[in-house]
Amino acid sequence: MANYCTKLRGFGVPEVMCNAHKRKSPADQKSAKSVKKPRKAEVNYLPPSPAGENEESQEQERIQLLTEVRKRDNNEVIKEKMGKTFAHRRNEIVYQSSSIEDIKIRWPALFEASQIQDEFYRITMVHLESKFMSKLDEYTPRLLNLFHAKGGTMELRLQAILLKAPTNPSTNLTRDGVIRCLMVYLGESLDHLLKQYDDGDEDSVSQDLTAQRMKIYSIKTNTSDGPDDVGIVVEGMKVLTALGNLPRACSMLLGLTYAVKLAYPKELRYTFEVFQKLLLELDCSKLSPKVNSLKNKLLA
Q1: Of 47, 93, 102, 192, which one has the fewest beta carbons inside 10 Å?
Q2: Percentages of the chain per state (helix, strand, coil), in multiples of 5
């Protein structure tokens, strides 16, 4: 076992090779500096290239994929080529730490809700949206009991959210309210996650969104019953649009952090920890004290 990593490096295993000194820049050639490793329970963090493929052939597949993306009703072909180029894409994202703009130029197909879900499954072997929603629905009755049991100032803040719900809310409205209350319960602000706009000047909204680092946005008009557009903005760029509702946008944002290797916002660390470790059950044995307390109450 003492030479295990050395042997893996000799076989060319990417997850070991990526931290070899010769693969690092001169400024980072120290054993403990810029270490690349799975940090959020990724099963396929840096997979090897498919048998018979190399970097050149994978790049040709990527170029063909750019053409396929422009065609209508071409989801099956796009899905197949995205699967073939998974190793090439992960190699770029992990090694180069590219900006969202660069990734979107090179891999435009990745920024679709269906492709985010496929990519998340390739990385974690977990179905993103279905798992997220099923666990959220499972915990909803116990979460609502916790929210109603709170007192003091937090009770007022929670009740302000719960009382906005209609008498017979739909499933999506219930999920929406639970997520909002959950963030308050964890001591985090919804303003750090969600940016809401009423019907306003499109240019001013677009300009404001360019200043957002990582947000779910909701643009609503006074003439409609629901949001016109719910989407995600990262590094000032709209990366996903027309997601429909907050719960789905939350699951897609979590999937996006895996797909393009984004860190969780510090001001939302408990919310994302619940999303990852309680709802998706990834790395769920290591919990912060606050989230562990919540888990114990949910399972009591």
Answers
A1: 102
A2: 60, 5, 35
